[in-house]
């Protein structure tokens, strides 16, 4: 039934976002960008894509931060157009997508000396009020690390967003369950690895894990007890896709240095330090894969979330290529994750 009525309120914007997705850079366009000798050549190549002349008014030399900022502004403009034309429940879904960025912004402002005033401002003036009220008190701001507060809020947000998507039902619930479950598991793994050698206790660590995801509850319990990366590997062993994150087989790479099909082609996790560095790339690669799959189903809202994440990854890749060109690091220019 939802498919029958979906186009009444959501069909136009779904068509718009699928059109945006068609404008994502292709492998041939990435290849052309990696062959540029200067940032000016890079700008010229981008002008032939959907980015158009977005850098035309920027004086030379153009910094890589300017490229990232301008590309991000294009994405923000697209998102604001979608949001301004959306009606319930899509408008609420798009609002949920903004909460993660609000959490990061508030975590930065909490470093201000007048944190209690900022706390009450967050309770009154932002949609994050329920997360602050239920998870963090004003007294905590003096005692807890800002990162702990941020992860506590993100845990509450993920659980709330997951419940909202489940209530929507249909293909939106199915696709978003896969995406948000991975996001929850990724955060649990990152929190565990980043807590090694810190004052964070295992009990505090466990409280930061979202109560959703494929690792919940057995895998999360194992992560809470983990003392090193090897034990993290063992906790992820029952999930075949996550097992690939720690695969040290060193299979051949493709697609400009990286494969888009699996997460186990990004090198060797030989020690704890390299594991931390490589694991994030593997997470990004798997996230791209899940978000591409979202576009295989119609009449659902997950495409809006997935397009935003794919575009963010594209901007990271553009910034990496531009940085390599600016620093003449040609040997590392292919170390990016293409979206298509």
Automatic annotation (TrEMBL):
One of its GO terms (molecular function) is proton-transporting ATPase activity, rotational mechanism. GO terms for cellular component: proton-transporting V-type ATPase, V0 domain. The keyword Transcription regulation does not apply. Gene3D superfamilies: ATP synthase (C/AC39) subunit, domain 3. Keywords: Hydrogen ion transport, Ion transport, Transport. The keyword Ion transport applies. Subunit of the V0 complex of vacuolar(H+)-ATPase (V-ATPase), a multisubunit enzyme composed of a peripheral complex (V1) that hydrolyzes ATP and a membrane integral complex (V0) that translocates protons. V-ATPase is responsible for acidifying and maintaining the pH of intracellular compartments. This subunit is a non-integral membrane component of the membrane pore domain and is required for proper assembly of the V0 sector. Might be involved in the regulated assembly of V1 subunits onto the membrane sector or alternatively may prevent the passage of protons through V0 pores. V-ATPase is a heteromultimeric enzyme made up of two complexes: the ATP-hydrolytic V1 complex and the proton translocation V0 complex. Belongs to the V-ATPase V0D/AC39 subunit family. This is V-type proton ATPase subunit.
